[in-house]
Design a protein that fits this description.
The structure is a homodimer of 306-residue chains. Chain A is an alpha/beta fold. Helix content of chain A is 42%, strand content 16%.
């Protein structure tokens, strides 16, 4: 079980080497991550985009051009469709965004012919390694679905459980979060959290233990759970997965942690046939590399189940 | 301007000594804070409750019994009404919760005859000192109002601006937060944030600069604002006040910071005629003392305006 990103790198190195297809790869920050992924034995890459520009940036980063397959497609939409098709056709294991806007990138992900759509909604999982917490934490959705319905939250849990399992967490503990740990009919979020718990108890959500509503302190910290008399909860200080009420709560917590805590993180899109990495321009190289490593273990799990 | 809780203590020490009325004071954690407040010259206290028990606990904490006025009222409801009346009558400056449930305590706060009601809704401000941020941050509402309406959010801003001003922030910068920094009609929170901004521009909310919606990183960090091309915003990396979409977002961020960041905080109830301290049992002594100091500067400001 990977309890840190270091563990995750070990886990990746024990797998067969994965291949990453990058859409519109002529981007310095993305190529830095691609280079680091190669050097750390996480993944090889196929770089789709403007070959001249890619070679120029690669040279400036002292990347060995022979280490990478480069496919010259100058048009941005076409480059993204070419790259995603590599994953669709099984020639690459995971798909990553380069120098193109998110809308065009997602269009390629959802393309009916060469894309990675499953028919289920897209969502997003953020994985954190936080000092004082002895395991990886999986947060969703902090970036993608604005106001998930109950049905969406069921998907969010299923997606995130899959990612956590790929990281070796056998039976993830899931905390649908709220401001309070008791159901209050005046707070719809708490009612939904209780409903997700019931769905888990009755076998509609499987492979995990769901217990909500939970406040963040009870979900994550044993002492807080003890102090508040909540040690009898199924999830009490040992949550692996945090499910947020909506994107505002999720994103504000995500940004608080990223900016205020000395942490590491990685991100992955969910609801797709193969792992998709949609990092933001503000993510540092470490975060991008962590995201590639995360995608690699998810790809390994998918290959196993094929 | 107080940029830290240390500054705030200096500010308090420069004021006339304030008096704190404690309801049902026979509580060790509360008396520890009362003792520390006395020793640090923040406030004297009038302890209302079971006098024998108060004296017993005080002795165990080596408190000098002559330092405190003790009023013997054994019945809990009566004790809270006696204590709040001291503030109502101007015999004390601020009111603090002891060993009683929040519901009974709030009943005394809202009592029509001897309470501190203003007719406006109650809310709550949490003040944080966070490493890497060169000023105090004022968060609201993270604990009290579940789903504030637009009108409630106007009150929340007015209350919080008052607290920030009492701490010496002349014209606080206010960020109504969301997951994104642009208005999106599909996200009501962003529409409300823009509406609060308009109300400020048109003079319906005064004494501060409001600019929303803002993401947390743009609100708090100059580099993030720069990276995202948001330096032209009225609030860009220099927010003093963070207004949350709802209690879930606020509380989850609050608990993330309290548990994951090496920070200090203090809290105060708002919407009352005089400062009310409603600390939680899980707050440590430092937090309680910070809250008393915060209440003292707010009381000073109220006295000035009388």
């Amino acid at each position: 079980m990977s309890k840190s990103f270091d563990d995750l790198l070990w886990q990746v190195n024990a797998c067969e080497k994965k291949k990453l297809a990058v859409a519109v790869a002529q981007d310095k920050a993305v190529l830095e991550a691609v280079k680091a992924a190669k050097e750390r034995n996480i993944a090889d890459s196929i770089l789709v985009g403007d070959a001249d520009k890619i070679r120029e940036i690669a040279a400036s980063l002292s990347m060995n051009p022979d280490d990478y397959e480069i496919i010259d497609v100058k048009d941005i939409t076409e480059a993204s469709l070419t790259a995603v098709k590599l994953v669709h056709d099984g020639k690459a294991d995971m798909y990553m965004k380069g120098l193109l806007d998110t809308k065009t990138f997602l269009k390629s992900v959802l393309d009916k012919e060469v894309g990675l759509r499953t028919g289920k909604p897209l969502s997003h999982v953020c994985v954190f390694e936080i000092p004082g917490i002895d395991r990886l934490l999986f947060l969703s959705d902090v970036a993608f679905m604005p106001y998930p319905t109950l049905e969406d939250k069921k998907c969010i849990i299923e997606y995130t459980v899959e990612i956590a399992k790929a990281c070796g967490v056998e039976c993830p503990k899931v905390a649908p979060l709220a401001a309070v740990e008791v159901v209050n009919p005046k707070m719809p979020v708490t009612v939904e959290a209780a409903e997700l718990t019931r769905m888990n108890e009755e076998g509609e959500i499987t492979g995990c233990i769901v217990d909500g509503p939970l406040s963040l302190d009870i979900a994550l910290y044993k002492e807080a759970a003890e102090e508040k008399g909540a040690l009898n909860r199924k999830v009490a200080g040992d949550a692996d997965i945090l499910v947020f009420p909506d994107i505002h709560a999720g994103n504000l917590v995500y940004k608080s942690i990223v900016h205020m805590v000395n942490c590491q993180n990685g991100n992955i899109l969910t609801g797709t046939k193969a792992p998709v990495i949609l990092t933001s321009r503000s993510d540092d190289c470490e975060t991008k590399v962590n995201s590639i490593a995360l995608a690699a273990v998810v790809a390994e799990e998918l290959n196993k189940n094929k």
